[in-house]
Design goal:
The protein has helices spanning 9-33, 39-59; strands at residues 5-7, 62-64. It is mostly helical.
C-alpha cells in the first residue's frame, strides 16, 4: 500500500515527534528490558530499526491537508 496519507499539520508533527523520540530512545528502551547484551537484545534492536525505517518511509507519503479527518491507516508504537 503506497497510497498517499492525508494528515493535518498538527497530526503530521505529532507523528514526526513520535518517530524522532523512538529513534533517539532505542538504547534506553533496550536498557529498560535487558541488563546485558544478548541475542534477544540484538533482535529487539533489529526489529525497532526495521520499524523506524518503515515509519520513516510511511511519513514520506504524508500529504498535509488542513481539511482531512487524520485517518492514519496504521497503529503507531511509541
Amino acid at each position: 500500500m503506497n497510497q498517499p496519507i492525508n494528515l493535518t499539520q498538527d497530526a503530521f508533527n505529532s507523528l514526526l515527534a513520535n518517530l524522532v523520540e523512538l529513534e533517539e530512545g532505542i538504547d534506553e528502551i533496550i536498557d529498560l528490558f535487558f541488563r546485558e547484551l544478548s541475542k534477544e537484545t540484538e533482535e529487539l534492536k533489529r526489529v525497532l530499526n526495521e520499524y523506524i525505517r518503515w515509519l520513516d518511509a510511511t511519513v514520506n507519503r504524508v500529504i498535509i491537508d488542513d481539511h482531512t479527518d487524520n485517518d492514519f491507516p496504521y497503529a503507531v508504537v511509541g
